[in-house]
Specification:
The chain is of the alpha/beta class. It has a single domain (about 5-30, about 40-385), classed as Rossmann fold, CATH 3.40.50. About 40% of the residues lie in helices and about 15% in strands. The protein has 15 helices and nine strands. The chain has helices spanning about 15-30, 45-60, 65-75, 115-120, 160-170, 185-195, 220-235, 235-240, 245-255, 255-270, 285-295, 300-310, 340-345, 365, 370-380, and strands at about 5-10, 75-80, 85-90, 100-105, 135-140, 180, 200-205, 325-330, 350-355. The protein has a nine-stranded mixed β-sheet, with helices on both faces. The longest helix has 17 residues, at about 220-235.
Length: about 400
């Protein structure tokens, strides 16, 4: 059992004024690069768009308003696991039998990704739903992201993070049975929980799923594997650098807020169902709030380091190992990896498969209603497996 010290303590988001003042000074004094005229997003981040977004950052963005909204929607707490702070938001369920549900963010995202869906899942009646579908919502910041402290030793990736989440859910919050939901890196951790903590996991809902291809692969799976190879050749440069030399890249991104903005927003545009206009899916405030969380906590290096760990020690998500907990998958059309159902069924105990009409990699922000509806539908037949649904040791009432 992991070492846990102390109970939960309130941890509202409150970034110091001097950090924000320094950030604005750096944005104002950005040393801008030139760009080939008309290149747009063709060679990476569009410099003209970044200039516009940076100007709004200085003159229009109100961090304190975003901070207040986060604290209202995702009330923050912290605990200590293995000597390191773990930050989490807790939204108590409002219904007759709320079930504990962990929402796991991805990269380059943060716990703020769940600001829309967490209230909907916790209090269905307030959004026109059935109170029977209520969940006790737990939204951790993954270690090395946001306000959760980084692990400064090698060997920590998604599977080890799954152990931390299990400790928080079982030993800190007292939930002996819980559900889990995740996309992107959160899906890696959710799969690790299904592999390493199966007795505690009543079900896993994923909006990005791993798979085990047949040998030889079917025609459909051969197309999938070829598509993935093409995507990696065209879009996977970030994986190559982050899985081999993340610290070199981090020196620049940790020093330049506009460099960090470019690195992150380019991915939010490329991976979302935005048709090339990132602000069709996200407001400027949402984009900047996520970047400020990386900047203020200095976690771009530690978040990128996971890629190196996963290259050296592949987690359960990418290994050809069967995950036996009940699993539901929502497939969004602009997701970066759309694993065929046949390969998913070999890897997971697949109970629900939903093909969504719209949405991409950041489903909780792009299509919150659709994602929430599918989560509710998946867990309805599994609720009887939860042995409590109301365990609240250490949790706010």
């Amino acid at each position: 059992m992991a070492l846990v010290t102390g109970l939960l303590e309130p941890f509202p988001v409150n970034i110091a004024d001097d950090v924000l003042d320094d950030l604005m000074e750096r944005v104002r004094h950005t040393r801008w690069t030139d760009a080939i005229p008309g290149s747009g997003w063709g060679y990476g981040a569009d410099v003209d768009y970044l200039r516009s977004l940076a100007a709004y950052w200085v003159d229009g963005f109100d961090w304190r308003a975003q901070e207040a909204a986060l604290n209202a929607r995702l009330p923050g707490f912290c605990t200590t696991v293995e000597g390191r702070r773990v930050h989490l938001a807790l939204v108590p369920g409002k219904g007759p039998h709320p079930v504990p549900l962990v929402l796991l963010h991805g990269w380059p995202g943060s716990f703020a990704e769940m600001a829309k869906v967490a209230p909907m899942l916790a209090d269905p009646a307030a959004f026109g739903g059935d109170p029977e579908d209520a969940f006790h919502i737990v939204v951790p910041s993954l270690p090395g992201h946001g306000f959760s402290e980084a692990v400064l030793e090698g060997g920590f990736g998604a599977d080890e993070c799954a152990d931390v989440v299990r400790t928080v859910m079982v030993d800190v919050l007292g939930h002996s049975s819980f559900g889990v939901q995740g996309g992107d890196r959160g899906a890696f951790v959710a799969t690790g929980l299904g592999h390493r903590a199966a007795p505690h996991v009543m079900g896993a809902h994923l909006n990005l799923a791993g798979g085990i291809p047949a040998s030889p692969p079917s025609a459909e799976e051969a197309v999938w594997l070829a598509d993935q190879a093409r995507w990696l050749a065209d879009e996977g440069g970030y994986i190559a650098i982050q899985s081999t030399r993340p610290q070199t890249l981090a020196v620049g991104l940790n020093d330049s807020p506009v460099g960090l903005l470019a690195w992150i927003v380019e991915k939010w545009r490329a991976w979302s169902d935005c048709g090339g206009d990132v602000e069709r899916c996200f407001t400027r405030d949402e984009l900047l709030t996520n970047v400020v969380l990386y900047w203020a906590t200095g976690t771009i290096r530690s978040s990128m380091h996971w890629y190196l760990e996963h290259r050296q020690r592949p987690p359960a998500f990418v290994r050809a190992e069967r995950i036996e907990v009940p699993t539901g998958v929502a497939v969004f059309p602009h997701e970066v990896m759309r694993t065929p159902r046949s390969a998913v069924e070999r890897k997971y105990d697949l109970r629900r498969w939903s093909v969504m009409p719209r949405g991409g990699h950041f489903a909780a922000m792009e299509q919150p209603e659709a994602l929430v509806g599918d989560i509710r539908a998946f867990f309805r037949p599994l609720r009887a497996r939860s042995d409590d649904g109301v365990h609240t040791k250490g949790a706010p009432q």
